[in-house]
Amino acid sequence: MGAANIKPPLIDGDYVYHVGFREIFCINKYTGETIWQWGFPDSPYGFSDDFLIHEEKFIIPRSNGNLYAIHKGLGTVIWSIENHEAGFSSNDLRVYNEMLYYGSGRLYVIDINAGQVVHAIRSPNRSSRFPHAQFLNGVAVDLERKHMYTTDGYFLMCMRLLE
Fold first, then answer.
1. How far is CA 65 from CA 44, 61, 82, 136, in A?
2. Chain-centroid distance, C-alpha 117
3. Up-side HSE of residue 5: CA atoms within 13 Å toward CB?
4. Are 129 and 111 in contact (CB under 8 A)?
5. How far is 124 from 121, CA to CA, in rounded Å?
6. 103 strand-pairing partners
7. What are the residue ranges of helices labelled H in 11-62?
8. What is the C-alpha separation between 104 and 85, in angstroms, rounded?
9. Distance CA 142, CA 35 (A)
10. Within a 10 A sphere around the Cβ of 126, how many other Cβ atoms?
């Protein structure tokens, strides 16, 4: 099944989702049958290190800056954001109130149903003093206060989540 991603497979119901370097596999966990296989086997770009399932969507970024929502049961593309509009790679993807949050240079907020970039926020601390201030880490979500926490490599920041 190709070179594996550094994260373990996801299990959702009767299926195991395995992310290789350039392909994704949906496997029936009882029979071992490959239900679908999707990806870019001949591309030099692989998939990034984080992925998640939200409702019927398998959300996965590629190392070339594209972000995809694949139908978890069919293996077909529901939506995609291409041309580096969603950052180059991402980690620690988080969903809150149908919005996907992650850091990839900027802090991205993606409408998970429409597949549209809602916000791409630069660090407010980026300056000559902190020229490398950027959001490369994930976010932590505080459901009680409806806030998220992240860092730009220099400062811890707290921001209100979108309602």
1. 13, 7, 7, 13
2. 13
3. 24
4. no
5. 8
6. 91, 107
7. none
8. 11
9. 36
10. 15
The two tokens of residue 88 are 């180059």
Question: What is the DSSP-derived secondary structure letter of residue 9?
Answer: P
Residue 58 gets which letter from DSSP?
E
Q: Could you report how far apart the first and last alpha carbons of the chain are, in Å?
A: 40
Pull the structure tokens for residue 34.
């490959």
pLDDT digits 0-9 by tens, 9-67 = 999 999 999 998 889 999 999 999 999 999 987 888 778 778 999 999 999 988 788 89
Taking every pair of Cα atoms in the chain, the longest distance, rounded to a whole number of angstroms, is: 58
For the sheet containing 156-160, what is the strand order? 140-142, 147-151, 156-160
pTM (predicted TM-score): 0.87
- Residues 55, 57: Cα–Cα separation, whole Å: 6
Per-residue tokens: 43:
């591309």
Residue listed under structure tokens 């991205």 = 108
